[in-house]
Amino acid sequence: MKKAAKISLMTFLAAISIFSSTGLAASHRLHYDTYFNYDEWPRSNSGTIYIDYYYSKNGFYDYRDEIKDASDSWENIESSPFVISKTSNESKANLIIKSDDYGDTGWVGRAYYNRDPKEIRLNEWYHDNSPVNGHSYRYSCYENTVLHELGHTHGLDHYDCPDEVMHTTHNHVLTPNDGDVQGIHNIY
Ligand SMILES: [Zn+2]
Ligand SMILES: [Zn+2]
Ligand SMILES: [Zn+2]
Prior knowledge:
alpha/beta, Collagenase (Catalytic Domain), five-stranded mixed sheet, two-stranded antiparallel ribbon, 7 strands, about 35% helix, globular, MetalloPept_cat_dom_sf, metallopeptidase activity, signal
């Protein structure tokens, strides 16, 4: 009886280690973290989250295309709750996106996720003053930055996996990964 229990425990442990070694490589689903104190986007009766952003270009460069591409990427995740639109009426926006030359601040983008309206800032200083985390400007730098900062406004904190949009440091992931998406469905 004792011996049988011991063998089955060992089989059980072996099964766990096989499962986790294959499961870990294949799945990013747990690769997200969410903010503890966070004011969620309001949802309509059908559960849709309408984000109407106003873009204020204050510097030299225009990031409207990067913003559009990043918005589309969040709209297109599996079972997406988001409908993201640009508005030219600032007073109707629940998200303000500003770009300007903020200088050598150490950040390319930053998000104020608990403001009303929520706010994203894009720092164009790194557009001309490379390196942006070790490399010079590419279109994908700012598309990824908008995607990442939008993730913060959705309530996602950083997670230390380079395949996720919410990776702690700048990467060029242009589509929310499994962890990013799971994080959204955990919050909403
Ligand atoms: Zn991951
Ligand atoms: Zn980059
Ligand atoms: Zn961040």
